[in-house]
Amino acid sequence: xxxxxxxxxxxxxxxxxxxxxxxxxxxxxxxxxxxxxxxxxxxxxxxxxxxxxxxxxxxxxxxxxxxxxxxxxxxxxxxxxxxxxxxxxxxxxxxxxxxxxxxxxxxxxxxxxxxxxxxxxxxxxxxxxxxxxxxxxxxxxxxxxxxxxxxxxxxxxxxxxxxxxxxxxxxxxxxxxxxxxxxxxxxxxxxxxxxxxxxxxxxxxxxxxxxxxxxxxxxxxxxxxxxxxxxxxxxxxxxxxxxxxxxxxxxxxxxxxxxxxxxxxxxxxxxxxxxxxxxxxxxxxxxxxxx
Amino acid sequence: xxxxxxxxxxxxxxxxxxxxxxxxxxxxxxxxxxxxxxxxxxxxxxxxxxxxxxxxxxxxxxxxxxxxxxxxxxxxxxxxxxxxxxxxxxxxxxxxxxxxxxxxxxxxxxxxxxxxxxxxxxxxxxxxxxxxxxxxxxxxxxxxxxxxxxxxxxxxxxxxxxxxxxxxxxxxxxxxxxxxxxxxxxxxxxxxxxxxxxxxxxxxxxxxxxxxxxxxxxxxxxxxxxxxxxxxxxxxxxxxxxxxxxxxxxxxxxxxxxxxxxxxxxxxxxxxxxxxxxxxxxxxxxxxxxxxxxxxxxxxxxxxxxxxxxxxxx
Lengths: 291, 314
Fold this sequence. Notes:
Chain A is built from 11 helices and 13 strands. The radius of gyration of chain A is 21 Å and the shape is globular. Chain A starts with a strand and ends in a 5-residue tail after the last helix. Chain A has 2 domains: 2-204, Rossmann fold, CATH 3.40.50.300; 216-285. Chain A is α/β, with parallel strands linked by helices. Chain B has helices at residues 2-9, 15-18, 26-39, 42-61, 65-72, 77-116, 120-123, 130-168, 174-180, 183-200, 202-214, 219-238, 242-252, 254-258, 281-285, 288-310. Chain B is globular and about 65 Å long. Chain A binds chain B through residues 47, 50, 52-54, 70-71, 74-75, 78-82, 84-91, 94, 98-99, 101-104, 138, 142, and chain B through 22-23, 27-28, 30-32, 34-35, 38-39, 114, 117-122, 124-129, 310, 312-313.
């Protein structure tokens, strides 16, 4: 079943086009990484999916219109829209009590179990917790909700590497199963490379690349080309060429692996490198990003 | 914390009966109201402090009470009653004024604070509709604060009564307060007065809520200046003050429609309301001012709900 279906999704703020007609289909049980530069339209797309803003075009989330049927949708969907949005005056115990009170699918014992693994105390106020602890608390609350779709918008922004690693580990080990769908946006692309099942690049309100991680691995190849083969390699039209320690690293799209193996060491590129390559191409074609 | 749970047990939100029905509509409302009380502790702390101060002040004034009471007994009965009632009226007025101030500042922050600290993104991630959230916030000035005010006034008055009785008892004057103070009547008048004044001021509170959901900053100025501007224009253009009078009546004038007010011969500015016969519920319920106010209030609340739907964090 498609968890999210969008056709011609468009959103403008005044004269700026934030989403310029996006077509999107996310199947159940996937973990989609939405990657894009600042102001590319990621947050706008997520806001539309979460029913936080009105939009033009067709959009169905779990079979519902998120703008007109938001109240029903929010029982099946949970999200972390930003780091540090938990109310600073609240005590941890009050948050647990409140979410248990209003959310029919919240399992309080489960949340308490997650929190027991951290140093967060029930009597603490949110303002007394560190930024990393607030993120842990929010994740504990969200993971204890039996939701079909979880949306994470920059959930690890400003956290140190230990918290970031822990965050994605818990998400994969304690939360994800194949009946749930997760959408995540982040600038720390390397850290989610092994987490994602699907990848989507967005720039200037348009989707510029969309593929599964399997397709990504078979389609893109990075070759550390031996200097004597450089001319031959460049003739195969690499997407990008860069110099690292005097070696040329070329990124290829859809070129036969055996052919590439003759030119040098072949490996799967990082999402970050592909992102830079795609954005550079986009940048020259479209010129600058707009919000 | 105790005061809070006491207050909550008095809420007519059917919390207990619906606790096991997850899809119930009242459950999110009940928890949203509790949430407001967790966040805004001034709702019960301010009346608590004022009530403590009133008792403290009265305890000091009680030192000279036996002497004053003997002098009082020489006056005519109507004056005796008026003077005996004075501290009880003062306590009620102080607490009602406190509740009014708390309500104003609560409303101005209610929909602004959550956008300012971005916590609206957390509240909106839970299955609580904008209507429920706004109604929970509206219930604070319209239901919770009046209820708390009534309870605090009653408790304060009972304690004042006890202080007065204990002070006067050794002088053989212990019964003089009880004979002159129609305590039950005053309580009924107070309860009626609170209910009618809250209904009367409904558009004021809902206007403040609307502004707090709309303004990006300086909610107080946005709430007050437009009305002030109309008053100024009217004054300069026509040298009249009808609009100012209208506003004043909307904020403080509910008693004119809710009670039968008799002009006092003593020349005091405050109308004296201490007889059950002054209660005029029929006059109040048929007053167009009440219904116009409620219609306007409903429109303001609907606008506030809609705004919360569209507005994100600041």
